[in-house]
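Incident log, structure service

09:12 report received: a user says their structure output differs between two submissions of the same chain.
09:20 pulled the input from the user's history:
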Amino acid sequence: MNNFAYNFINKQNMTITIAIASDHGGFEMKSFIKQKLIDKGYEVADYGTNSNESVDYPDYIHPLAKAINDGKYLRGIILCGSGNGAQMTANKYANVRAGLAWNKEQALLIRQHNNANILSLPGRFVDFDVAWEMVEAFLGTDFEGGRHALRVSKIADIN
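09:34 re-ran on a clean worker, output below:
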């Protein structure tokens, strides 16, 4: 079993649900990623949107981020045109660490060094295959802890 599959199957061989949401700018890529996850045997909680019709990304990102914040899901994937607005919205929640990635290496690092629980993707700026590589890296990578643990604990610490 590869690292991707191992990290998302618990000890009882039950799949863990991956939450996903986008606006219109990320809808096509979200649909692609959602189908790839389903094809791999994962459950997906789709928070919308469900078309290319123009919408406001906070309407879809807030519910997903709240669910991650409240512990309903361990990981989420969010998309908008640039990935920035979705990430900014998600990071309003104290228990959310959403990281924007444009390549596989960034997706690895947001997990390894920042213990990100949400991956934010730029739906209009990367190829679908690159997006899938980022999803696999994000879901298949563990947090390194160690020297990074103190830094991550300081993220939610507001002075």
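09:41 both user submissions now match this output. Likely a transient worker issue. Closing.
09:42 reviewer note: The chain is about 40% helix and 15% strand. The chain has a mean pLDDT of 91.
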